[in-house]
Specification:
Cofactor: pyridoxal 5'-phosphate
Strand order of the largest sheet: 4-12-11-10-7-5-6
InterPro entries: Aminotrans_3, Aminotrans_3_PPA_site, Class-III_PLP-dep_AT, PyrdxlP-dep_Trfase, PyrdxlP-dep_Trfase_major, PyrdxlP-dep_Trfase_small
Number of helices: 14
Radius of gyration: 21 Å
Helix content: 40-55%
Strand content: 15-25%
Keywords: Aminotransferase, Pyridoxal phosphate, Transferase
Structural class: alpha/beta
CATH superfamily of the largest domain: Type I PLP-dependent aspartate aminotransferase-like (Major domain)
GO molecular function: identical protein binding; pyridoxal phosphate binding; transaminase activity
CATH class of the largest domain: Alpha Beta
CATH architecture of the largest domain: 3-Layer(aba) Sandwich
CATH topology of the largest domain: Aspartate Aminotransferase, domain 2
Largest sheet: 7 strands, mixed
Shape: globular
Number of domains: 2
Protein name: Aspartate aminotransferase family protein
Distance between the termini: 41 Å
Length: about 400
C-alpha cells in the first residue's frame, strides 16, 4: 500500500516538477547536474536563496548539539530568535506566539481573537487563501479547497474587495462605507465577528495586491468596533515586497502572522501582536510537538541577523522594479502577456495562451515557475529576494524565447 501511494505521488508531480537533489543561491539541480533557475523561491520561503554558507554553518553546528526537545522544554535559541523578531516587526511592544507552519499560525491567530473577544465569527475576503487545515480552510475562499472542510469550519463571512480603490479615492471611500455598514449591522444584531483577516497581497489566487486604503479601513474599523484585525504576512513578510513587511507603524494590525522566510526553508511560523492580546491565549492552550525547537530557532535567529545586517528587501525593491518593467515591456511586445502586478519580488502576469505550455517550455529551458490562481492563466514569480540583476535578465531572455516559440 505504501509503495502504491508513493507511485501515485510521483506520477502526480511529473512532468511539471523535476526531481531536485541540491541547490545553491537561486538555482536548484537535479541528479544529472542540470540547473534550474527557481522563480518560485521554494514557494516563497527561500528569500535568502538556497544553501547559504552561514546558514549551513549554523545548521550543522546546532545539529551536532541538539535538534529537538519538545515544545514544553525551553532552549536559549527561542529567546534569542523571539527578541530579534520583536525588534524587526513594527510594534513598539509585542509578544510572539510560536508555531510550525503558516496554516498552524493562522489557527493560533484565530484562537487568540476568539479568546480575546469572546466571539466566534471571522470575516475574510474574496480570493483569500490562509492554509488547508480546518480553521485556515474556513477563511480560504477557493471552493476546491473548502470542500474538504470535514467539520464545517468556523462561523465565517466573506466580503468582496475593490482592487481599484488604490487609484480612485472615491472608490476607497465607498468601500470604507460599505465595511462600516456591514459592521454596524453586525453590532446591532449581536453578530460582530471576533476577527477580520486578510493577506496584503493575495498570493495563492494570483498575486493581487490589496490597496493600502482598504487595508487602512480594515485596521481602523476593526479598532472602532472591537474586532481583532489580522494581517496574514506569511508570504509578504521578511522583505519580499521591497520592505520588511507590508505592515508598518502607520498600518498596524492587531495581529501579524508570519512564516515561510522566517526559517528560509525550515518549518517555523509565528503570531506577533500586542502583548495584552497575544497573552489571551494561555500556556498550553495551543502547542505542537515541533514548536520552536532548538535547530529551527538557531537557524531563524541567524536569518534575522542577516535581515538586520543586509536589509535584503532593498534588493527586492530595486530588482523587483526592474523585473516588473521588463514584464510590462514584454506585454507591449506580446499581447498575450497582460495584467502585470505585484510588489517587489512578488509578481505575476496573466498569459492569454496555453499557460501550461508556457510553464513546461520554461521548465525545458531550465526555469521553474508556478501557475494557477483564480484565473487559471496566471504565472506567479516569487524568486529568492537576493536574486541578481543578471539572473533577472537571464529569466527574461528565456521567457521571451519561450513566448516566441508558442
Amino acid at each position: 500500500m505504501f509503495t502504491e501511494a508513493l507511485s501515485i505521488s510521483v506520477k502526480r508531480n511529473t512532468p511539471s516538477s523535476p526531481s531536485i537533489v541540491r541547490g545553491k543561491g537561486c538555482f536548484l539541480y537535479d541528479a544529472d547536474g542540470r540547473a534550474f533557475l527557481d522563480m518560485s523561491g521554494g514557494s516563497g520561503a527561500a528569500n535568502l536563496g538556497y544553501q547559504r554558507d552561514d546558514l549551513i554553518e549554523v545548521t550543522q553546528r546546532q545539529a551536532e548539539l541538539l535538534v529537538h526537545t519538545g515544545w514544553n522544554i525551553d532552549n536559549p535559541h527561542r529567546h534569542e530568535m523571539v527578541a530579534k523578531l520583536a525588534r524587526l516587526v513594527p510594534y513598539l511592544q509585542a509578544s510572539v506566539f510560536g508555531a510550525v507552519t503558516g496554516a498552524e499560525a493562522i489557527e493560533v491567530a484565530l484562537k487568540i481573537a476568539r479568546a480575546a473577544t469572546g466571539r466566534q465569527g471571522v470575516v475574510y475576503f474574496d480570493n483569500a487563501f490562509h492554509g488547508k487545515t480546518q480553521g485556515a480552510l474556513s477563511v480560504t475562499s477557493n471552493p476546491n479547497f473548502r470542500k474538504h472542510l470535514a467539520l464545517g469550519g468556523l462561523q465565517v463571512s466573506a466580503l468582496a474587495l475593490d482592487y481599484a480603490a488604490e487609484h480612485d479615492p472615491a472608490r476607497a471611500a465607498q468601500w470604507h462605507e460599505q465595511l462600516f455598514a456591514y459592521l454596524t449591522q453586525a453590532k446591532q444584531t449581536g453578530s460582530l465577528p471576533a476577527a477580520m483577516i486578510i493577506e496584503p497581497i493575495q498570493a495563492a489566487e494570483g498575486m493581487y495586491p490589496v490597496p493600502r486604503p482598504l487595508l487602512e479601513s480594515i485596521v481602523e474599523l476593526a479598532r472602532t468596533f472591537g474586532v481583532v484585525s489580522i494581517f496574514d504576512e506569511i508570504y509578504t513578510g521578511f522583505g519580499r515586497t521591497g520592505k520588511p513587511f507590508v505592515s508598518d507603524p502607520t498600518l498596524l494590525p492587531d495581529l501579524l502572522v508570519l512564516g515561510k522566510a522566517l526559517g528560509n526553508g525550515l518549518p517555523i511560523s509565528a503570531v506577533v501582536g500586542r502583548t495584552e492580546l497575544v497573552d489571551c491565549l494561555g500556556y498550553a492552550e495551543h502547542s505542537s510537538t515541533f514548536t520552536l525547537m532548538p535547530l529551527v530557532c538557531a537557524v531563524a535567529s541567524k536569518v534575522l541577523d542577516i535581515f538586520d545586517q543586509e536589509q535584503p528587501w532593498q534588493l527586492a525593491a530595486s530588482n523587483g522594479a526592474h523585473l516588473r518593467q521588463a514584464l510590462e515591456q514584454l506585454g507591449r511586445d506580446d499581447e498575450r502577456v497582460t495584467h502585470v502586478r505585484g510588489r517587489g519580488l512578488m509578481l505575476a502576469f496573466d498569459f492569454a495562451g496555453d499557460v501550461l505550455a508556457l510553464r513546461n517550455g520554461l521548465l525545458d529551458h531550465g526555469v521553474i515557475v508556478r501557475t494557477g490562481g483564480c484565473n487559471s492563466n496566471t504565472v506567479k514569480l516569487t524568486p529568492p529576494i537576493v536574486m541578481s540583476g543578471s539572473e533577472i535578465q537571464a529569466f527574461m531572455q528565456t521567457l521571451q524565447g519561450v513566448c516566441q516559440a508558442l
